[in-house]
Design brief:
Blueprint (H helix, E strand, L loop, with lengths): L14 E3 L27 E5 L2 E5 L17 E6 L1 E2 L26 E2 L6 E10 L4 E9 L9 E8 L3 E3 L5 E4 L1 E5 L9 E3 L2 E3 L6 E8 L2 E6 L2 E6 L7 E9 L14 E10 L5
Length: 269
């Protein structure tokens, strides 16, 4: 299968999005990695309201790529960039297993594709055993090696709990995943942190050449001494694993509400 050239330069490198209008109108894609299935099959359960973007996984939401992905998962996600090669090619974003081919060609859509800068996601989430939420930057993959990830936040619902005094805690994930980028190494941690993910918080990454600084509500949480060096796109998503144990406290409808995404270019010098 012949390859398709990368579809031109990515889009805006700055953004201040409050989701006061449907995200598709601003160039976002409201489907999760649709090249491996289709826009319709991977569509998010999404709505906008006064407090921002609501992504949820209600009962009956279809399983994503049911014949390809194991374990089964349901997902509602939006992404600030999307493209693929033609049907039958291997040119798609974030392939999750060897041998994947494009099932539905995706036109290039670029709502926000920074190359360094500060990225902030203000959100709250309702998750429990069997569900999770995340916000991450990932390479636009104009070539497969440009695939590294900067994860601003990742929280599994079975790691949400309380301290002995009743203070909410969570295993708060952040860091860098290399995927197919040989210049990066795995550096991801999820330390137990006093935080209530059901309340509003701003998760941020200051992405500079050779370094990423992670923070929550303006407080530095960790620094990683490496960084991808190419344009990236932002993905926001909530996930449900139907075969996972769903014990007490598991919500009927996992939900991620994003009030604001703010991305600023690096200051000169």
């Amino acid at each position: 299968m012949p390859t398709t050239p990368h579809p031109g330069p990515p889009g805006p490198t700055e953004v201040d999005e409050t989701f006061d209008r449907p995200p598709e109108e601003r160039g976002w894609t409201t489907a999760y990695l649709p090249a491996w299935s289709s826009r319709a099959a991977a569509a998010a359960h999404v709505r906008t309201g006064p407090d921002g973007l609501h992504l949820s996984v209600p009962p009956g939401h279809p399983v994503w790529c049911p014949d390809l992905h194991a374990p089964p998962l349901r997902v509602s996600a939006v992404q600030s960039g999307s493209w693929s090669g033609p049907v039958g090619s291997t040119q798609g974003q974030q392939p999750f297993r060897p041998g994947l081919v494009v099932r539905e060609e995706q036109p290039a859509r670029w709502a926000y594709t920074p190359h360094h800068g500060r990225v902030e996601v203000t959100c709250r989430a309702v998750v429990g055993p069997g569900s999770m939420f995340s916000a991450w930057l990932v390479g636009v993959e104009d070539v497969p090696e440009r695939s590294g990830e900067i994860c601003l936040v990742e929280v599994f619902g079975d790691a949400v709990g309380t301290d002995d005094d009743g203070t909410p805690t969570v295993a708060l994930g952040s860091g860098v995943h290399p995927f197919r980028d040989p210049a990066l190494r795995e550096d991801f941690t999820a330390p137990r942190t006093r935080l209530d993910v059901a309340a509003w918080h701003t998760y941020a990454a200051d992405w500079r050449p050779g370094e990423v600084r992670f923070s929550v509500d303006g407080a530095l949480t960790r620094t990683v001494a490496q960084a991808p060096d190419y344009p990236m796109q932002l993905i926001l998503g909530v996930f449900h694993f139907p075969e996972a144990p769903h014990g007490p406290g598991s919500p009927v409808v996992p939900e991620l509400v994003v009030r604001r995404v703010r991305g600023t270019a690096p200051a000169p010098g």
